[in-house]
Design goal:
The complex is a heterodimer.
Chain A lengths: L6 H9 L5 H14 L5 E4 L1 H17 L9 E5 L26 H9 L2 E6 L33 H8 L5 E6 L5 H7 L2 E4 L19 E6 L2 H11 L29 E5 L9 H16 L3 E5 L7 H16 L18 H12 L2 H13 L6 H24 L2 E5 L14 H6 L5 H5 L4 E9 L2 E9 L4 H14 L11
Parallel strand pairs in A: 2-3, 2-4, 7-8, 7-9
Antiparallel strand pairs in A: 1-3, 4-6, 5-6, 5-10, 9-11, 10-11
Helix pairs in contact in A: 2-3, 5-6, 7-15, 9-11, 9-12
Chain B lengths: L4 H10 L6 H18 L34 H6 L4 E2 L2 E2 L7
Antiparallel strand pairs in B: 1-2
Classes of the chains: A alpha/beta, B mainly alpha.
Chain lengths: 481, 95
Protein backbone atom coordinates (compact mmCIF):
# COMPACT_ATOMS: atom_id res chain seq x y z
CA UNK A 1 0.00 0.00 0.00
CA UNK A 2 3.04 2.28 0.13
CA UNK A 3 2.32 3.39 -3.44
CA UNK A 4 -0.87 5.11 -2.30
CA UNK A 5 1.15 7.56 -0.23
CA UNK A 6 2.02 11.03 -1.52
CA UNK A 7 5.58 12.36 -1.73
CA UNK A 8 4.90 14.36 1.44
CA UNK A 9 3.74 11.23 3.29
CA UNK A 10 6.57 9.06 1.91
CA UNK A 11 9.10 11.63 3.04
CA UNK A 12 7.76 11.40 6.61
CA UNK A 13 7.65 7.58 6.46
CA UNK A 14 11.28 7.42 5.33
CA UNK A 15 12.42 9.84 8.04
CA UNK A 16 10.55 7.82 10.72
CA UNK A 17 12.07 4.64 9.24
CA UNK A 18 8.56 3.14 8.89
CA UNK A 19 10.04 1.66 5.72
CA UNK A 20 13.38 1.94 3.96
CA UNK A 21 14.06 3.46 0.57
CA UNK A 22 15.16 0.01 -0.65
CA UNK A 23 11.80 -1.50 0.41
CA UNK A 24 9.93 1.35 -1.25
CA UNK A 25 12.02 1.08 -4.42
CA UNK A 26 11.50 -2.69 -4.64
CA UNK A 27 7.78 -2.15 -4.18
CA UNK A 28 7.62 0.28 -7.12
CA UNK A 29 9.89 -1.88 -9.31
CA UNK A 30 7.50 -4.79 -8.79
CA UNK A 31 4.57 -2.60 -9.76
CA UNK A 32 6.38 -1.44 -12.90
CA UNK A 33 7.22 -5.04 -13.79
CA UNK A 34 3.56 -6.08 -13.52
CA UNK A 35 2.25 -3.04 -15.43
CA UNK A 36 1.17 -3.30 -19.09
CA UNK A 37 0.90 0.45 -19.78
CA UNK A 38 4.20 0.76 -21.71
CA UNK A 39 4.94 3.81 -19.56
CA UNK A 40 8.70 3.19 -19.48
CA UNK A 41 11.32 3.04 -22.22
CA UNK A 42 14.06 1.96 -19.79
CA UNK A 43 13.73 0.62 -16.25
CA UNK A 44 16.94 1.24 -14.28
CA UNK A 45 16.56 -1.42 -11.62
CA UNK A 46 20.21 -1.80 -10.56
CA UNK A 47 20.83 1.94 -10.48
CA UNK A 48 17.60 2.49 -8.51
CA UNK A 49 18.54 -0.07 -5.87
CA UNK A 50 22.04 1.35 -5.48
CA UNK A 51 20.63 4.88 -5.16
CA UNK A 52 18.11 3.56 -2.61
CA UNK A 53 20.88 1.92 -0.53
CA UNK A 54 22.81 5.20 -0.61
CA UNK A 55 19.65 7.08 0.44
CA UNK A 56 19.06 4.66 3.33
CA UNK A 57 22.57 5.21 4.55
CA UNK A 58 22.01 8.99 4.53
CA UNK A 59 18.65 8.55 6.27
CA UNK A 60 20.17 6.35 8.96
CA UNK A 61 23.02 8.78 9.56
CA UNK A 62 20.56 11.64 9.81
CA UNK A 63 22.06 13.69 6.97
CA UNK A 64 19.12 13.24 4.59
CA UNK A 65 17.49 16.10 2.68
CA UNK A 66 13.71 16.55 2.41
CA UNK A 67 13.20 14.16 -0.53
CA UNK A 68 16.10 11.73 -0.02
CA UNK A 69 15.04 8.19 -0.86
CA UNK A 70 11.88 9.12 -2.86
CA UNK A 71 11.52 7.02 -6.05
CA UNK A 72 10.54 8.88 -9.21
CA UNK A 73 10.38 8.34 -12.95
CA UNK A 74 12.29 10.60 -15.30
CA UNK A 75 11.04 11.64 -18.73
CA UNK A 76 13.40 10.17 -21.33
CA UNK A 77 14.19 13.67 -22.63
CA UNK A 78 16.58 14.42 -19.75
CA UNK A 79 20.17 13.31 -20.20
CA UNK A 80 21.21 10.74 -17.60
CA UNK A 81 24.86 9.76 -17.46
CA UNK A 82 25.45 6.13 -18.46
CA UNK A 83 21.75 5.54 -19.14
CA UNK A 84 20.03 5.46 -22.53
CA UNK A 85 18.39 8.82 -23.32
CA UNK A 86 16.26 8.31 -26.43
CA UNK A 87 13.62 11.07 -26.27
CA UNK A 88 11.27 8.45 -27.74
CA UNK A 89 13.14 8.50 -31.07
CA UNK A 90 14.87 5.82 -33.11
CA UNK A 91 17.57 8.34 -33.98
CA UNK A 92 18.60 8.52 -30.31
CA UNK A 93 17.92 4.86 -29.51
CA UNK A 94 21.68 4.09 -29.36
CA UNK A 95 22.43 7.25 -27.30
CA UNK A 96 23.88 6.58 -23.84
CA UNK A 97 24.31 10.06 -22.42
CA UNK A 98 27.88 10.89 -21.37
CA UNK A 99 26.65 13.56 -18.94
CA UNK A 100 23.78 14.47 -16.62
CA UNK A 101 21.22 17.19 -17.30
CA UNK A 102 21.28 19.82 -14.56
CA UNK A 103 17.85 18.59 -13.46
CA UNK A 104 19.09 14.98 -13.25
CA UNK A 105 22.08 16.19 -11.24
CA UNK A 106 19.88 18.12 -8.81
CA UNK A 107 17.60 15.13 -8.17
CA UNK A 108 20.69 12.95 -7.65
CA UNK A 109 22.19 15.41 -5.17
CA UNK A 110 18.93 15.38 -3.20
CA UNK A 111 19.35 11.59 -2.94
CA UNK A 112 16.27 10.66 -4.95
CA UNK A 113 15.89 7.28 -6.63
CA UNK A 114 15.40 7.08 -10.41
CA UNK A 115 13.25 4.04 -11.27
CA UNK A 116 13.50 4.51 -15.03
CA UNK A 117 13.01 6.72 -18.06
CA UNK A 118 9.46 7.29 -19.25
CA UNK A 119 7.94 6.91 -22.69
CA UNK A 120 7.05 10.02 -24.66
CA UNK A 121 6.08 11.32 -28.08
CA UNK A 122 9.17 11.37 -30.26
CA UNK A 123 11.33 14.39 -29.37
CA UNK A 124 8.33 15.79 -27.43
CA UNK A 125 6.23 16.29 -30.56
CA UNK A 126 2.72 15.03 -30.04
CA UNK A 127 -0.39 15.19 -27.88
CA UNK A 128 -1.22 11.49 -27.55
CA UNK A 129 2.05 9.59 -27.03
CA UNK A 130 1.30 7.71 -30.24
CA UNK A 131 4.39 9.21 -31.93
CA UNK A 132 6.84 7.23 -29.77
CA UNK A 133 9.30 4.88 -31.49
CA UNK A 134 8.63 2.55 -28.53
CA UNK A 135 4.88 2.34 -29.10
CA UNK A 136 2.01 4.22 -27.46
CA UNK A 137 1.39 4.41 -23.72
CA UNK A 138 -2.02 3.32 -22.44
CA UNK A 139 -4.18 5.48 -20.21
CA UNK A 140 -4.52 3.76 -16.79
CA UNK A 141 -8.19 4.85 -16.59
CA UNK A 142 -9.05 3.10 -19.86
CA UNK A 143 -6.40 1.15 -21.70
CA UNK A 144 -8.04 1.82 -25.06
CA UNK A 145 -7.47 5.56 -24.61
CA UNK A 146 -4.40 7.73 -25.00
CA UNK A 147 -2.65 9.17 -21.92
CA UNK A 148 -2.00 12.48 -23.71
CA UNK A 149 1.41 13.76 -24.65
CA UNK A 150 4.14 14.36 -24.95
CA UNK A 151 4.85 13.43 -21.29
CA UNK A 152 2.37 10.52 -21.55
CA UNK A 153 4.59 7.90 -19.91
CA UNK A 154 5.24 10.18 -16.92
CA UNK A 155 1.53 10.96 -16.50
CA UNK A 156 0.51 7.30 -16.76
CA UNK A 157 3.26 6.27 -14.31
CA UNK A 158 2.01 8.69 -11.66
CA UNK A 159 -1.69 7.95 -12.29
CA UNK A 160 -1.05 4.19 -11.90
CA UNK A 161 1.23 4.87 -8.91
CA UNK A 162 4.25 3.24 -10.57
CA UNK A 163 6.32 5.98 -8.97
CA UNK A 164 5.76 8.67 -6.36
CA UNK A 165 6.08 11.43 -8.95
CA UNK A 166 7.56 12.03 -12.38
CA UNK A 167 9.36 14.72 -14.32
CA UNK A 168 7.92 16.20 -17.48
CA UNK A 169 8.52 18.90 -20.05
CA UNK A 170 6.00 21.28 -21.59
CA UNK A 171 6.54 23.08 -24.90
CA UNK A 172 2.87 23.52 -25.86
CA UNK A 173 1.03 21.63 -23.12
CA UNK A 174 3.07 18.45 -22.75
CA UNK A 175 2.85 18.44 -18.94
CA UNK A 176 -0.64 19.90 -18.48
CA UNK A 177 -2.54 17.94 -21.14
CA UNK A 178 -1.38 14.42 -20.12
CA UNK A 179 -1.84 15.44 -16.46
CA UNK A 180 -5.44 16.35 -17.31
CA UNK A 181 -6.11 13.18 -19.30
CA UNK A 182 -4.59 10.94 -16.61
CA UNK A 183 -6.06 12.73 -13.57
CA UNK A 184 -2.86 13.95 -11.93
CA UNK A 185 -1.39 17.34 -10.97
CA UNK A 186 1.06 18.88 -13.45
CA UNK A 187 2.91 22.18 -13.28
CA UNK A 188 4.69 24.01 -16.08
CA UNK A 189 6.64 26.79 -14.38
CA UNK A 190 7.57 30.19 -15.82
CA UNK A 191 10.00 29.98 -18.76
CA UNK A 192 13.54 29.99 -17.34
CA UNK A 193 12.60 28.72 -13.85
CA UNK A 194 14.15 25.24 -14.31
CA UNK A 195 17.39 24.69 -16.19
CA UNK A 196 17.13 23.36 -19.74
CA UNK A 197 20.77 22.16 -19.74
CA UNK A 198 20.80 18.52 -20.81
CA UNK A 199 17.10 18.55 -21.66
CA UNK A 200 16.90 17.56 -25.33
CA UNK A 201 15.69 20.69 -27.10
CA UNK A 202 12.49 20.79 -29.13
CA UNK A 203 11.65 24.52 -29.27
CA UNK A 204 14.11 26.42 -27.12
CA UNK A 205 12.02 29.57 -26.54
CA UNK A 206 9.06 27.48 -25.32
CA UNK A 207 10.51 24.39 -23.57
CA UNK A 208 10.19 24.19 -19.79
CA UNK A 209 10.50 21.27 -17.35
CA UNK A 210 8.20 20.69 -14.41
CA UNK A 211 6.86 18.24 -11.82
CA UNK A 212 4.03 15.73 -12.45
CA UNK A 213 2.63 14.68 -9.10
CA UNK A 214 -0.33 13.39 -7.12
CA UNK A 215 -1.08 16.76 -5.53
CA UNK A 216 -0.20 20.45 -5.45
CA UNK A 217 1.62 19.93 -2.15
CA UNK A 218 3.87 17.34 -3.82
CA UNK A 219 4.41 19.65 -6.79
CA UNK A 220 5.62 22.36 -4.40
CA UNK A 221 8.01 19.96 -2.65
CA UNK A 222 9.49 18.76 -5.94
CA UNK A 223 9.64 22.22 -7.54
CA UNK A 224 11.74 23.34 -4.55
CA UNK A 225 14.43 20.92 -5.75
CA UNK A 226 14.01 21.45 -9.51
CA UNK A 227 13.98 25.26 -9.68
CA UNK A 228 16.93 27.62 -9.73
CA UNK A 229 19.52 29.48 -11.73
CA UNK A 230 21.98 27.53 -13.84
CA UNK A 231 25.02 29.10 -15.40
CA UNK A 232 25.04 26.34 -18.03
CA UNK A 233 21.69 27.45 -19.48
CA UNK A 234 21.88 30.92 -21.03
CA UNK A 235 18.08 31.32 -20.77
CA UNK A 236 17.95 30.32 -17.09
CA UNK A 237 16.60 33.16 -14.93
CA UNK A 238 18.85 34.45 -12.18
CA UNK A 239 16.07 34.78 -9.65
CA UNK A 240 15.70 33.58 -6.06
CA UNK A 241 13.73 30.41 -5.46
CA UNK A 242 11.12 30.81 -2.71
CA UNK A 243 10.05 27.88 -0.52
CA UNK A 244 7.04 26.85 -2.59
CA UNK A 245 5.47 24.99 0.34
CA UNK A 246 5.37 28.07 2.55
CA UNK A 247 2.13 29.67 1.32
CA UNK A 248 0.16 26.53 0.52
CA UNK A 249 -2.12 26.93 3.52
CA UNK A 250 -2.95 30.61 3.00
CA UNK A 251 -6.61 31.45 2.56
CA UNK A 252 -7.66 32.23 -1.01
CA UNK A 253 -10.42 34.58 0.12
CA UNK A 254 -10.46 37.50 -2.31
CA UNK A 255 -8.41 35.69 -4.97
CA UNK A 256 -9.40 37.16 -8.34
CA UNK A 257 -10.10 34.49 -10.96
CA UNK A 258 -10.56 35.36 -14.63
CA UNK A 259 -12.48 33.11 -17.01
CA UNK A 260 -11.53 33.87 -20.62
CA UNK A 261 -14.72 33.72 -22.66
CA UNK A 262 -12.70 32.38 -25.61
CA UNK A 263 -11.90 29.23 -23.56
CA UNK A 264 -15.60 28.38 -23.20
CA UNK A 265 -16.77 28.83 -26.76
CA UNK A 266 -17.32 26.46 -29.66
CA UNK A 267 -15.30 23.24 -29.65
CA UNK A 268 -15.36 22.63 -25.90
CA UNK A 269 -17.00 19.33 -24.96
CA UNK A 270 -20.13 19.95 -22.83
CA UNK A 271 -19.15 17.39 -20.20
CA UNK A 272 -15.74 19.06 -19.80
CA UNK A 273 -17.32 22.53 -19.54
CA UNK A 274 -19.63 21.22 -16.80
CA UNK A 275 -16.71 19.90 -14.73
CA UNK A 276 -14.75 23.14 -15.14
CA UNK A 277 -17.68 25.37 -14.15
CA UNK A 278 -18.41 23.16 -11.15
CA UNK A 279 -14.83 23.51 -9.94
CA UNK A 280 -14.98 27.29 -10.40
CA UNK A 281 -18.04 27.26 -8.08
CA UNK A 282 -15.90 25.43 -5.52
CA UNK A 283 -13.34 28.26 -5.68
CA UNK A 284 -16.17 30.80 -5.25
CA UNK A 285 -17.38 28.96 -2.17
CA UNK A 286 -13.87 29.34 -0.72
CA UNK A 287 -14.13 33.11 -1.14
CA UNK A 288 -12.59 33.69 -4.57
CA UNK A 289 -14.09 36.31 -6.90
CA UNK A 290 -14.76 35.25 -10.46
CA UNK A 291 -15.09 37.50 -13.46
CA UNK A 292 -15.21 37.03 -17.21
CA UNK A 293 -12.20 38.26 -19.17
CA UNK A 294 -11.16 38.23 -22.80
CA UNK A 295 -8.00 36.98 -24.49
CA UNK A 296 -8.98 38.12 -27.99
CA UNK A 297 -6.00 36.64 -29.84
CA UNK A 298 -6.04 33.22 -28.16
CA UNK A 299 -7.51 31.45 -31.20
CA UNK A 300 -4.36 32.42 -33.12
CA UNK A 301 -2.18 30.48 -30.66
CA UNK A 302 -2.45 27.37 -32.84
CA UNK A 303 -1.06 28.78 -36.11
CA UNK A 304 1.46 30.88 -34.17
CA UNK A 305 2.78 27.93 -32.18
CA UNK A 306 2.84 25.61 -35.18
CA UNK A 307 5.12 28.07 -36.97
CA UNK A 308 7.42 29.08 -34.10
CA UNK A 309 7.94 25.57 -32.70
CA UNK A 310 8.71 23.86 -36.05
CA UNK A 311 11.13 26.68 -36.95
CA UNK A 312 13.03 26.17 -33.72
CA UNK A 313 12.93 22.37 -34.03
CA UNK A 314 14.19 22.37 -37.61
CA UNK A 315 17.23 24.25 -36.33
CA UNK A 316 17.69 22.26 -33.10
CA UNK A 317 17.36 18.86 -34.75
CA UNK A 318 19.95 19.57 -37.42
CA UNK A 319 22.46 18.26 -34.87
CA UNK A 320 20.99 14.78 -35.25
CA UNK A 321 22.89 13.86 -38.39
CA UNK A 322 24.41 10.45 -37.76
CA UNK A 323 27.95 11.79 -37.31
CA UNK A 324 28.73 12.22 -33.63
CA UNK A 325 26.09 10.21 -31.74
CA UNK A 326 22.84 8.39 -32.23
CA UNK A 327 21.70 6.33 -35.19
CA UNK A 328 23.73 6.05 -38.41
CA UNK A 329 22.44 4.31 -41.54
CA UNK A 330 24.24 1.20 -42.87
CA UNK A 331 26.91 1.60 -45.56
CA UNK A 332 26.53 5.28 -46.51
CA UNK A 333 27.72 5.96 -50.06
CA UNK A 334 28.90 9.50 -49.35
CA UNK A 335 28.41 12.22 -46.72
CA UNK A 336 25.11 13.46 -48.15
CA UNK A 337 23.75 9.92 -48.25
CA UNK A 338 24.83 9.49 -44.62
CA UNK A 339 22.88 12.61 -43.55
CA UNK A 340 19.83 11.84 -45.68
CA UNK A 341 19.40 8.20 -44.76
CA UNK A 342 20.38 8.49 -41.08
CA UNK A 343 17.80 11.25 -40.61
CA UNK A 344 15.09 9.71 -42.79
CA UNK A 345 15.40 6.29 -41.18
CA UNK A 346 15.87 7.78 -37.70
CA UNK A 347 13.01 10.30 -37.48
CA UNK A 348 9.31 9.44 -37.38
CA UNK A 349 6.64 10.96 -39.62
CA UNK A 350 5.43 13.79 -37.36
CA UNK A 351 8.97 14.93 -36.58
CA UNK A 352 9.79 15.00 -40.30
CA UNK A 353 6.66 17.06 -41.00
CA UNK A 354 7.61 19.64 -38.39
CA UNK A 355 11.22 19.82 -39.59
CA UNK A 356 9.98 20.44 -43.14
CA UNK A 357 7.45 23.08 -42.10
CA UNK A 358 10.16 24.85 -40.09
CA UNK A 359 12.69 24.61 -42.90
CA UNK A 360 10.17 26.12 -45.31
CA UNK A 361 9.02 28.88 -42.92
CA UNK A 362 12.61 29.98 -42.30
CA UNK A 363 13.74 29.80 -45.92
CA UNK A 364 14.60 32.86 -47.97
CA UNK A 365 11.49 34.58 -49.28
CA UNK A 366 9.11 33.04 -46.75
CA UNK A 367 10.68 34.15 -43.45
CA UNK A 368 8.66 37.39 -43.24
CA UNK A 369 5.36 35.76 -44.17
CA UNK A 370 5.67 32.97 -41.60
CA UNK A 371 8.28 33.25 -38.86
CA UNK A 372 8.29 37.02 -38.44
CA UNK A 373 4.49 37.20 -38.70
CA UNK A 374 4.14 34.49 -36.06
CA UNK A 375 6.54 36.25 -33.67
CA UNK A 376 4.46 39.42 -34.04
CA UNK A 377 1.22 37.62 -33.27
CA UNK A 378 3.01 35.99 -30.36
CA UNK A 379 3.56 39.50 -29.02
CA UNK A 380 -0.18 40.24 -29.30
CA UNK A 381 -1.02 37.01 -27.46
CA UNK A 382 1.42 37.96 -24.72
CA UNK A 383 -0.11 41.48 -24.46
CA UNK A 384 -3.57 39.94 -23.98
CA UNK A 385 -2.27 38.21 -20.86
CA UNK A 386 -0.54 41.37 -19.58
CA UNK A 387 -3.86 43.21 -19.74
CA UNK A 388 -5.69 40.32 -18.07
CA UNK A 389 -3.25 40.13 -15.16
CA UNK A 390 -3.84 43.80 -14.38
CA UNK A 391 -7.35 42.71 -13.37
CA UNK A 392 -7.05 39.13 -12.09
CA UNK A 393 -4.59 36.90 -10.17
CA UNK A 394 -5.27 33.60 -11.91
CA UNK A 395 -6.85 32.62 -15.21
CA UNK A 396 -8.85 29.39 -15.18
CA UNK A 397 -10.37 27.20 -17.84
CA UNK A 398 -10.15 23.78 -19.44
CA UNK A 399 -6.81 22.12 -20.29
CA UNK A 400 -8.11 20.08 -23.18
CA UNK A 401 -11.38 20.34 -25.15
CA UNK A 402 -12.18 16.66 -24.51
CA UNK A 403 -11.28 13.90 -22.06
CA UNK A 404 -8.83 11.21 -23.24
CA UNK A 405 -9.60 10.09 -26.80
CA UNK A 406 -9.23 6.61 -28.26
CA UNK A 407 -5.87 5.19 -29.33
CA UNK A 408 -5.76 5.66 -33.12
CA UNK A 409 -8.85 7.90 -33.12
CA UNK A 410 -7.18 11.09 -34.41
CA UNK A 411 -5.32 10.40 -37.63
CA UNK A 412 -4.34 13.71 -39.22
CA UNK A 413 -1.86 16.21 -37.80
CA UNK A 414 -4.08 19.27 -38.01
CA UNK A 415 -6.89 17.67 -35.97
CA UNK A 416 -4.30 16.70 -33.35
CA UNK A 417 -2.92 20.28 -33.29
CA UNK A 418 -6.41 21.68 -32.62
CA UNK A 419 -6.57 19.72 -29.35
CA UNK A 420 -3.78 21.98 -28.00
CA UNK A 421 -5.90 25.13 -28.25
CA UNK A 422 -6.02 25.97 -24.51
CA UNK A 423 -2.44 25.14 -23.55
CA UNK A 424 -0.28 26.73 -26.27
CA UNK A 425 -0.71 30.37 -25.30
CA UNK A 426 0.94 29.99 -21.86
CA UNK A 427 4.11 28.72 -23.56
CA UNK A 428 4.07 31.47 -26.18
CA UNK A 429 3.86 34.05 -23.36
CA UNK A 430 6.31 32.20 -21.04
CA UNK A 431 3.69 31.97 -18.27
CA UNK A 432 3.33 29.28 -15.58
CA UNK A 433 0.38 26.92 -15.98
CA UNK A 434 -1.04 24.03 -14.05
CA UNK A 435 -3.52 21.19 -14.48
CA UNK A 436 -5.31 19.78 -11.44
CA UNK A 437 -7.89 16.97 -11.30
CA UNK A 438 -11.35 18.57 -11.26
CA UNK A 439 -13.81 15.77 -11.96
CA UNK A 440 -14.82 13.12 -14.46
CA UNK A 441 -16.57 12.74 -17.76
CA UNK A 442 -17.74 9.15 -18.49
CA UNK A 443 -15.25 7.79 -15.94
CA UNK A 444 -12.35 9.67 -17.54
CA UNK A 445 -10.55 12.39 -15.58
CA UNK A 446 -10.86 16.07 -16.50
CA UNK A 447 -8.26 18.65 -15.49
CA UNK A 448 -8.76 22.31 -14.63
CA UNK A 449 -6.14 24.65 -16.05
CA UNK A 450 -4.78 27.54 -14.03
CA UNK A 451 -2.52 30.12 -15.68
CA UNK A 452 -0.65 32.68 -13.59
CA UNK A 453 1.47 35.74 -14.22
CA UNK A 454 5.25 35.34 -14.64
CA UNK A 455 6.87 33.95 -11.44
CA UNK A 456 3.53 33.38 -9.69
CA UNK A 457 3.97 29.63 -9.13
CA UNK A 458 3.24 30.23 -5.42
CA UNK A 459 -0.18 31.69 -6.26
CA UNK A 460 -1.05 28.71 -8.48
CA UNK A 461 0.17 26.16 -5.93
CA UNK A 462 -1.69 27.89 -3.09
CA UNK A 463 -4.98 27.95 -5.03
CA UNK A 464 -4.52 24.35 -6.20
CA UNK A 465 -3.70 23.11 -2.70
CA UNK A 466 -6.71 24.88 -1.20
CA UNK A 467 -8.92 23.27 -3.86
CA UNK A 468 -7.43 19.89 -2.98
CA UNK A 469 -8.20 20.35 0.71
CA UNK A 470 -11.90 20.73 -0.26
CA UNK A 471 -12.12 18.06 -2.98
CA UNK A 472 -10.93 14.49 -3.39
CA UNK A 473 -10.56 14.26 -7.19
CA UNK A 474 -6.77 14.11 -6.88
CA UNK A 475 -6.80 11.02 -4.66
CA UNK A 476 -9.20 9.01 -6.82
CA UNK A 477 -7.47 6.09 -8.51
CA UNK A 478 -8.11 4.00 -11.60
CA UNK A 479 -9.48 0.50 -10.91
CA UNK A 480 -7.16 -2.18 -9.52
CA UNK A 481 -4.46 0.25 -8.41
CA UNK B 1 0.31 29.82 -50.62
CA UNK B 2 0.46 26.15 -51.35
CA UNK B 3 3.37 23.89 -52.14
CA UNK B 4 3.81 21.74 -55.21
CA UNK B 5 5.66 18.43 -55.34
CA UNK B 6 8.84 20.00 -56.68
CA UNK B 7 8.99 22.48 -53.80
CA UNK B 8 8.41 19.70 -51.28
CA UNK B 9 11.37 17.77 -52.69
CA UNK B 10 13.52 20.90 -52.45
CA UNK B 11 12.49 21.51 -48.84
CA UNK B 12 13.25 17.88 -47.99
CA UNK B 13 16.72 18.24 -49.51
CA UNK B 14 17.33 21.45 -47.52
CA UNK B 15 16.31 19.61 -44.34
CA UNK B 16 18.42 16.57 -45.34
CA UNK B 17 15.39 14.31 -45.41
CA UNK B 18 14.82 11.77 -48.14
CA UNK B 19 11.39 11.51 -49.72
CA UNK B 20 10.64 8.66 -52.09
CA UNK B 21 8.63 9.46 -55.20
CA UNK B 22 5.84 7.28 -53.84
CA UNK B 23 5.54 9.51 -50.74
CA UNK B 24 5.74 12.95 -52.36
CA UNK B 25 2.06 13.29 -53.12
CA UNK B 26 0.90 12.47 -49.59
CA UNK B 27 3.58 14.60 -47.93
CA UNK B 28 2.66 17.54 -50.15
CA UNK B 29 -1.00 17.20 -49.18
CA UNK B 30 -0.15 16.98 -45.47
CA UNK B 31 2.15 19.99 -45.53
CA UNK B 32 -0.43 22.05 -47.44
CA UNK B 33 -3.04 21.08 -44.90
CA UNK B 34 -0.79 22.48 -42.17
CA UNK B 35 0.03 25.62 -44.16
CA UNK B 36 -3.71 26.30 -44.61
CA UNK B 37 -3.96 26.46 -40.84
CA UNK B 38 -1.11 29.02 -40.78
CA UNK B 39 -2.96 31.21 -43.26
CA UNK B 40 -5.35 32.24 -40.45
CA UNK B 41 -2.65 34.64 -39.29
CA UNK B 42 -3.19 36.77 -42.39
CA UNK B 43 -6.43 37.97 -40.80
CA UNK B 44 -4.49 39.97 -38.22
CA UNK B 45 -3.02 43.38 -38.86
CA UNK B 46 0.50 43.33 -37.41
CA UNK B 47 1.94 46.30 -39.23
CA UNK B 48 2.83 48.20 -36.06
CA UNK B 49 3.59 45.18 -33.86
CA UNK B 50 7.12 44.32 -32.77
CA UNK B 51 8.11 40.65 -33.11
CA UNK B 52 8.59 38.95 -29.74
CA UNK B 53 12.23 38.05 -29.25
CA UNK B 54 12.07 36.49 -25.78
CA UNK B 55 9.18 35.14 -23.71
CA UNK B 56 10.25 37.19 -20.68
CA UNK B 57 11.28 40.50 -22.28
CA UNK B 58 14.78 39.69 -21.14
CA UNK B 59 17.95 40.13 -23.13
CA UNK B 60 20.43 37.34 -23.61
CA UNK B 61 22.79 36.95 -20.65
CA UNK B 62 26.46 37.20 -21.54
CA UNK B 63 29.41 35.67 -19.75
CA UNK B 64 33.17 36.00 -19.71
CA UNK B 65 34.87 34.05 -22.48
CA UNK B 66 36.63 31.54 -20.25
CA UNK B 67 37.00 27.77 -20.37
CA UNK B 68 34.01 26.33 -18.53
CA UNK B 69 33.90 22.73 -19.71
CA UNK B 70 36.31 19.98 -18.85
CA UNK B 71 37.70 17.84 -21.66
CA UNK B 72 35.20 15.04 -22.25
CA UNK B 73 36.40 14.13 -25.74
CA UNK B 74 36.97 10.47 -24.80
CA UNK B 75 33.45 10.09 -23.39
CA UNK B 76 31.94 11.82 -26.42
CA UNK B 77 33.92 9.71 -28.89
CA UNK B 78 33.03 6.50 -27.06
CA UNK B 79 29.38 6.87 -28.10
CA UNK B 80 30.00 7.95 -31.71
CA UNK B 81 28.99 5.68 -34.60
CA UNK B 82 32.53 5.67 -36.04
CA UNK B 83 35.80 7.21 -34.82
CA UNK B 84 39.49 6.99 -35.54
CA UNK B 85 42.58 8.86 -34.36
CA UNK B 86 40.38 11.12 -32.15
CA UNK B 87 38.18 12.13 -35.06
CA UNK B 88 34.55 11.43 -35.93
CA UNK B 89 34.70 9.46 -39.17
CA UNK B 90 32.39 9.96 -42.17
CA UNK B 91 32.65 8.75 -45.80
CA UNK B 92 35.48 10.42 -47.72
CA UNK B 93 34.56 13.95 -48.80
CA UNK B 94 37.78 14.97 -50.56
CA UNK B 95 39.94 12.35 -52.30
Amino acid sequence: MMHKLSVAELSKGLKNRDFSSVELTQHYLKRIDRSDLNAFITVTEDLALSQAREADSRLTKGDADVLTGIPYSHKDIFCTKGVKTSAGSKILDPFISPYDATLSHKLNMEGMVMLGKTNMDELAMGSSNENSYYGPVKNPWDKKKVPGGSSGGSAAAVAARLSAFATGTDTGGSIRQPASLCGITGLKPTYGRISRYGMIAYASSLDQAGPMTQSAEDAALVLNIMAGFDDKDSTSANKDVPDYTENLNNSIKGLKIGLPKEFFSEGLDDSVAKVILQSIKEFESMGANVEEISLPNSAFAIPTYYIVAPCECSSNLSRLDGVRYGYRCDNPEDLDDLYLRSRSEGFGEEVKRRIMIGTYALSAGYYDAYYLKAQKVRHLISEDFKRAFQKVDVIMGPVSPTPAFGLGAIKDSVSMYLADIYTLSANLAGLPGMSIPAGFSNNLPVGLQMIGNHWSEEVLLNAAHQFQTQTDWHVRLPENI
Amino acid sequence: MSLDKKQVKEIAQLARLKIDDSEVQQTTAELNNILNLMAELNEIDTEHVEPMAHPLDMSQRLREDVVSETDLSEEFQAIAPKTGKQHFLVPTVIE
